[in-house]
Amino acid sequence: MLEMRDVSTSYGKVKMLHRVSLDVREGEAICLLGSNGAGKSTTIKTILGLIKPDSGTVTFLGERIDGIKTHSIIRKGVSIVPEGRRLFPKMSVEQNLRIGIYSDMDESVLESMRNHIFTLFPVLKERKNQSAGTLSGGEQAMLSISRALMQRPKLMILDEPSFGLAPILVEEFYETILQIKKQGTTILLSEQNAGKALAIADRGYVLQKGMIVAEGQKQELLKSEIVRKAYLGE
């Protein structure tokens, strides 16, 4: 579904990614692990067209996307749950959900998506007329992922989704991500919380200083010395 091949990117004269290659297959949940500054957000921005690669290619559904605008990539079926949620705090839950629609959508389909989201997150139905900025941290996380779902994405990218959440909310949030995967949405998950990410992932990649230093099935990564020492505290 998604492929990066030998992608290198820079901020000015500073090289941020060094020949990064990864792939995400349809129906998978893939985790991208790494500490702050490892290159995870740069990788996501490159996929979304926010950063143009110096070299290498990015393809989605067999089509190169490394040279096209972000809004065009979104319309092809990629959605993003950004780090820090990035909601519109003065707008209602309902209005934030509608902002998630990047293309023309029949009203009946829109209503079906709303109902689906309110089934996933009943509390959002109760809060639908409430300003997003007045929601709790957990409710804002629910709204952020719901906004991304409104586009009916083929691929959902989540950038540090557990950041700032209490441990009990992280558990609930990851259960929801797993449920979304089981319903057919492909997931690319960028995380520092390796334990939670690998619990739901099929495969993963480890980034350090802009380079892929390990990759494999989740059981392989759980046994990897790099992952165990750097991300699992062993």
Features of this protein?
alpha/beta, Rossmann fold, about 25% strand, 4-stranded antiparallel β-sheet, single chain
Question: Your description of this structure?
Answer:
The chain is of the alpha/beta class and 234 residues long. The chain has a domain at 1-77 and 155-165 and 186-234: P-loop containing nucleotide triphosphate hydrolases (Rossmann fold), CATH 3.40.50. It contains ten helices and ten strands. It has helices at 40-47, 70-75, 93-99, 107-120, 122-126, 137-149, 167-182, 194-200, 218-223, 225-230, and strands spanning 2-11, 14-24, 29-33, 55-60, 63-64, 78-81, 155-159, 186-191, 203-208, 211-217. The strands form two sheets. The protein has a six-stranded mixed beta sheet with strand order 6-7-8-3-9-10, with helices on both faces. A four-stranded antiparallel beta sheet has the order 2-1-4-5, with helices on one face. The chain starts with a strand and ends with a helix. The model has no long low-confidence stretch (mean pLDDT 87).
